[in-house]
Backbone:
């Protein structure tokens, strides 16, 4: 059982990525379920903040101005002091600020991570060990809460992309927020050619949609029994959290640590033997910020190492698997 009942819970996730927020969703939902009736507020960045608006577990969302992360946390504390504060964020003195509020705090969810434990599972295990959530409330799979109206809009949006077809579709997410996570364009072309040859309807996810609209589109991919394919990116994690089967392409990050945490996901790892990969300290990898790969002068070899034929095979297995 949790150590007492908390009525005001603050979760701070200011790592900046959409995927980072999706990975913390199971912890948000478990904290809310462990403390029924609590007000649970989140401080996080756009565009990920949009995923939480409308979530029945979340009372409010505060978005900091550029460079104003600490100020946003301070404003949230001043407006309503929490009795439990949890943060994934360690920069800017934010942990000290939370501890200074007098709240029960869990300020280091990154402590001593092993390379073979999923980040989201690690969060949940630490929170359970800290006694602030009830393990029986835990669902380790990230899940987005969408309204009936949003789902209907998503169905219309997907129909507009695919045209008249009753076959299970494949939706591609070729873009990534970091160059080091991009699967080469030639590989995408090869994959489309293979799927087209098999008569599989293929579309590309619109990159300019608000995240909740994109989530609703992915939810309809799930309803149709389709598959979403992409790299280790926020939108692919949104697809998985919307219920869609996914084929995830991992290169610089290790799937055993950064996988989607969803049994309906297939993870394909490029260059699993890369000597430069640092699973528990990815931002220190030589390739991370500028995609400068020591193994290839032209592109990240770990991503290029994933063959289109292997991805197509994984897609077809997912399309024919039982729900």
Residues:
């Amino acid at each position: 059982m949790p150590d007492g009942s908390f009525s005001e819970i603050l979760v701070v996730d200011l790592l900046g990525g959409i995927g980072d927020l999706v990975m913390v969703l199971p912890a948000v939902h478990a904290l809310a379920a462990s403390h029924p009736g609590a007000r649970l507020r989140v401080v996080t960045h756009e565009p990920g903040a949009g995923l939480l608006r409308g979530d029945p577990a979340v009372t409010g969302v505060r978005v900091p101005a550029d460079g104003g992360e600490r100020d946003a946390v301070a404003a949230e504390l001043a407006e309503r002091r929490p009795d439990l504060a949890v943060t994934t964020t360690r920069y800017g003195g934010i942990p000290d600020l939370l501890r200074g509020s007098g709240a029960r705090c869990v300020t280091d969810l990154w402590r001593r991570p092993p390379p073979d434990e999923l980040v989201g599972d690690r969060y949940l295990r630490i929170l359970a060990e800290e006694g602030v959530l009830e393990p029986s409330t835990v669902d380790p799979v990230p899940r987005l809460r969408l309204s009936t109206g949003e789902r209907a809009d998503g169905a219309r949006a997907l129909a507009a992309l695919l045209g008249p077809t009753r076959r299970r579709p494949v939706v591609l997410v070729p873009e990534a927020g970091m160059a080091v996570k991009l699967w080469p364009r030639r590989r995408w072309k090869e994959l489309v050619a293979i799927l087209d040859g098999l008569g599989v309807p293929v579309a590309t996810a619109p990159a300019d949609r608000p995240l909740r609209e994109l989530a609703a589109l992915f939810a309809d991919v799930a309803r149709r029994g389709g598959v979403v394919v992409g790299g280790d990116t926020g939108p692919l994690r949104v697809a998985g959290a919307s219920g869609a089967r996914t084929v995830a392409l991992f290169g610089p990050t290790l799937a055993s640590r950064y996988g989607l945490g969803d049994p309906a996901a297939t993870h394909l790892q490029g260059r699993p033997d890369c000597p430069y990969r640092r699973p528990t300290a990815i931002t220190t990898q030589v390739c991370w910020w500028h995609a400068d790969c020591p193994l290839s002068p032209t592109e990240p070899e770990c991503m290029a190492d994933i063959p289109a034929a292997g991805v197509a095979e994984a897609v077809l297995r997912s399309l024919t698997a039982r729900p």
